[in-house]
Amino acid sequence: MISMKPHAHHLTRRGFLKAAGAGATSLAVAPLTGLAADAPSEKRPPNVVLFVADDQRNDTIAEWGNDHIHTPNLDRLARSGFSFTAARCMGAQTGAVCIPARAMLNTGRSLFRVPENMGRFMTIGQALRATGYETFHAGKWHNGTPAFVRSYSAGGNIFFGGMNANQYKVRIHDFNPAGKYPADSIRIGDKFSSELFADAAVDFISRQKGAKKPFYCYLAFTSPHDPRTPPAPYSKMYDPARMPLPKNWLPEHPFDNGELGGRDERLAPFPRTKPDTKKQLCDYYGMISSQDEQVGRVLAALESAGQMSNTLIVYTGDHGLSIGSHGLFGKQSVYEEAQHVPLIFSGLGVPGGKSSAAIAYGFDIFPTIFGLMGLTPPKSVEGRSLAGIMSGSAQKVRDTVFSAYIHPVRGGHPYTQHAACDGQWKLIQYDVKGKTTLQLFDLGNDPTESRDLAQDGLAQKQLPRLRELLDHSQKTFDEPRELIVEG
Fold it and tell me: Is 103 left (phi over 0), alpha (psi -120 to 50) or beta?
């Protein structure tokens, strides 16, 4: 690692969010064009089911090469569909990374161009609703009620919050057609969160047998986010003695990244221990396997309702998780394990059993769904459709990666992490407490970022080019260069 002097930041966070929301007004009002000429030939437009996991890193699917986890339904989707093994979240300006991640996913916009409440930007649900879809939500919604109300015409077991204090006692709302969700209408769920949310989706899909109106079902889990308390039999499915540690496991991070005292990091002892990490990985895998069962229930409901053949299924996550990698446990970093997410498209003519390592972001999901259905996305969408990669007409939609994590500090300069990657080489720059630290990784030969080459004389020749790429990316994605959080 190399230390240097950081840049200054002075624009208020409130001012940035206000500006982002204002920009939304002029961009989100463009109407949809409806079905294009290349739309599917079924009697009715295709349905869409979008699953979103919370905190699921992308190396947790058996079909993708993890021999230590049980995910039969995700494996089924991967075998029948197309996997994007390098999909990622761009980052966050808050420790609650899921908020901006889901704002990006739902609006098709990049990190610094959408406020956390989505402003007035068109969402996937809102756009499909405008074309005549029944739009249904179950599970987590962490981006404010106004965006929710305009996006969904139906719903059930709705969780307006970030994380559950107890996975067995989730504070949920029933759908209110009037769009009112006061605190006194909250009720407490009586099942494990994943089953509770899947119940609502299964009930909705079961009522679609013979329906003439197409539907969009958005099922957002709060798993495998902690508290990692998987239900039986998944609580005992994995043996710590047989659970391997991540290849890049460390007892502690090599320097202060500005987030070492964060909530997620305090879930494990300092320094990290191998037994604790293995136990937490067992619980983490148990949560994912439990959730996988619920995915299977939804797939079964589609089949029973006769809707499977005319449904596009998408499975993804909001962001990854460290859980021992690099001595960290949270998602507040720009390492690969915190940025990468699962992404699988299945059904609706998507090629089966294929995959691509092309660079993709969560905000590419919106235009990809529309591209696969023959719909023109709203003009406000800036993501790029991955449909061409699936059809074989394109190999990639972008050449480089940009990631950012900004830790707000009240009344002072934020702690920042930025990364730029050209597909082979990756630069990470940390600005923390008046000090800048660089890391340099050769991802082509070191995909787990286990060997920092910032002090390697030969590798250092990559630094000027990567620093130029980072600066260019910050400008391209409109990152505010002067940022300070109001005290």
Answer: alpha
- pLDDT tens digits, one per residue of 395-414: 999 999 999 999 988 878 89
Contact (CB, 8 A) for 91 and 100: yes
The pLDDT score that the predictor gives to residue 483 is 57
Please say if the pLDDT value at position 330 is more than 50.
Answer: yes
Q: Is residue 33 part of a domain?
A: no
On whether the CB atoms of residues 264 and 280 are closer than 8 A, the answer is no
In this prediction the pTM is 0.92
Same domain (yes/no): 304, 422? no
Write down how long the chain is.
Answer: 487
Verify that 87 and 106 share a domain, yes or no: yes
Question: Which sign does the torsion angle of CA 216, 221, 224, 226 carry?
Answer: positive
Place of tokens 């003695």: 241
For residue 411, give both structure tokens: 């009344």
Q: For residue 40, is it within any domain?
A: no
Phi, psi of 404 (to 5 degrees): -145, 140
Nearest to 221 by CA among 307, 146, 158: 158
Residue 164: predicted pLDDT: 86
Residue 272 lies inside a defined structural domain of this protein: yes
Contact 359, 400 (CB under 8 A): yes
Tokens of residue 226, six digits: 């902690």
Residues 73 and 203 in one domain: yes
Three-state SS for 236? helix
Integer Cα distance of 483 and 344 in angstroms: 36
Do 339 and 405 belong together in one domain? no
108 vs 18: which has the higher pLDDT: 108
The position carrying tokens 């990190």 is 111
How many Cβ atoms sit within 10 Å of the Cβ of residue 330?
Answer: 23
Domain count, the chain: 2
pLDDT at residue number 10: 33
Give the angle 136-137-138 at the CA atoms, nearest 5°. Answer: 130
- Give residue-wise pLDDT tens across range 430-445: 999 999 999 999 999 9
33 is written with which tokens?
A: 């064009």
Following CA atoms 320, 378, 126, 132 in sequence, which dihedral angle do they give, to the nearest 10 degrees? -130
294 and 411 together in one domain: no
The enclosing domain of 467 has a CATH number of 3.30.1120
Write the CATH number for 193.
3.40.720.10
Domain end, chosen from 391, 424, 444, is at 391
Residues 200 and 239 in one domain: yes
* Mean pLDDT, residues 120-148: 97
In a domain, 23, yes or no: no
Structure confidence at residue 43 as a pLDDT band (50, 70, 90): low
Enclosing domain of residue 52? 45-391
Token pair for 269: 């002892």
pLDDT of 40 above 70: no
